[in-house]
């Protein structure tokens, strides 16, 4: 995986191995499914759609009623765009993706949602315990770390530390 | 003179209390990258880099930071935006 800047720092170019693209496409599809089909008591959904009023049941209910559809739509759209951009048919070679600033935001938020879901599934609840219990699910944990690496690399390009 | 000034201060305080009764709070979570949180604060709130990083570090070290104060509707809009970015945000009444 390589992330480079586009001219003028107004976007990013992401180069993925075909296998990486397939993995990302599959993960994006799963994020979309969680948003579409997730049970109300799925804790991962709780991470994606937090309670704005933990101490006020009625206000929380109203907030959810007014915001949920639009939040779910935005997150699903971001996931679907990543899924479609990374959909490849053949093995071998690389996939090059160019994103402008606004498309890049879609990827950043998708990668965040993906990591929130994976963290919930793997059980990352405390920073200090982030590397405990390593055998629990190596695949999900590797995907979590990798998504963080992709996001971090994108941020280095989109938001370089000056000086 | 002193009286007038004190009167002015009281009015200012009163107006602030009336106008700024709610706030949006962003909470620490073990998932989000510090660089991401800081970039969100800069991009969404239009903050200078130093201020965005100060708030991000506050979230990280204190567990939470007040990122906006104002009327309830505006604070819910900010919370919704933060949720869109995948940050944990709540709305609460400002303490008197």
UniProtKB/TrEMBL annotation, chain A:
<dbReference type="InterPro" id="IPR018561">
    <property type="entry name" value="AosR"/>
</dbReference>
<protein>
    <recommendedName>
        <fullName>DUF2017 domain-containing protein</fullName>
    </recommendedName>
</protein>
<dbReference type="Pfam" id="PF09438">
    <property type="entry name" value="DUF2017"/>
</dbReference>
From TrEMBL, chain B:
<comment type="similarity">
    <text>Belongs to the ClpS family.</text>
</comment>
<dbReference type="GO" id="GO:0006508">
    <property type="term" value="P:proteolysis"/>
</dbReference>
<dbReference type="InterPro" id="IPR003769">
    <property type="entry name" value="ClpS_core"/>
</dbReference>
<feature type="domain" description="Adaptor protein ClpS core">
    <location>
        <begin position="21"/>
        <end position="89"/>
    </location>
</feature>
<keyword id="KW-0645">Protease</keyword>
<dbReference type="Pfam" id="PF02617">
    <property type="entry name" value="ClpS"/>
</dbReference>
<comment type="subunit">
    <text>Binds to the N-terminal domain of the chaperone ClpA.</text>
</comment>
<protein>
    <recommendedName>
        <fullName>ATP-dependent Clp protease adapter protein ClpS</fullName>
    </recommendedName>
</protein>
<dbReference type="GO" id="GO:0030163">
    <property type="term" value="P:protein catabolic process"/>
</dbReference>
<comment type="function">
    <text>Involved in the modulation of the specificity of the ClpAP-mediated ATP-dependent protein degradation.</text>
</comment>
<dbReference type="InterPro" id="IPR014719">
    <property type="entry name" value="Ribosomal_bL12_C/ClpS-like"/>
</dbReference>
<dbReference type="GO" id="GO:0008233">
    <property type="term" value="F:peptidase activity"/>
</dbReference>
<dbReference type="InterPro" id="IPR022935">
    <property type="entry name" value="ClpS"/>
</dbReference>
<keyword id="KW-0378">Hydrolase</keyword>
């Amino acid at each position: 995986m390589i992330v480079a800047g586009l001219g003028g720092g107004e976007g990013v170019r992401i180069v993925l191995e075909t296998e990486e693209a397939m993995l990302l496409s599959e993960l994006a599809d799963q994020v979309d499914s969680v948003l579409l089909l997730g049970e109300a008591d799925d804790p991962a959904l709780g991470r994606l759609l937090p309670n704005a009023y933990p101490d006020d049941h009625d206000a929380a209910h109203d907030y959810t009623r007014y915001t949920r559809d639009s939040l779910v739509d935005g997150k699903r759209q971001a996931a679907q765009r990543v899924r479609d951009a990374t959909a490849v048919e053949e093995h071998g070679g690389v996939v090059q993706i160019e994103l402008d600033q606004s498309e890049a935001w879609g990827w950043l938020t998708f990668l965040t949602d993906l990591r929130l879901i994976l963290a919930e599934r793997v059980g990352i609840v405390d920073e200090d315990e982030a590397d405990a219990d390593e055998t629990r699910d190596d695949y999900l944990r590797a995907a979590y770390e990798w998504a963080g690496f992709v996001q971090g690399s994108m941020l280095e390009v989109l938001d370089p530390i000056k000086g | 003179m002193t009286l007038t000034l004190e009167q002015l201060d009281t009015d200012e305080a009163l107006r602030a209390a009336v106008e700024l009764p709610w706030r949006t709070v962003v909470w620490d979570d073990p998932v989000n990258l510090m660089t991401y949180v800081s970039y969100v604060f800069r991009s969404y709130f239009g903050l200078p880099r130093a201020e965005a990083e100060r708030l991000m570090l506050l979230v990280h070290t204190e567990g939470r930071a007040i990122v906006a104060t104002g009327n309830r509707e505006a604070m819910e809009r900010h919370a919704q935006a933060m949720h869109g970015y995948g940050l944990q945000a709540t709305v609460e009444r400002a303490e008197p």
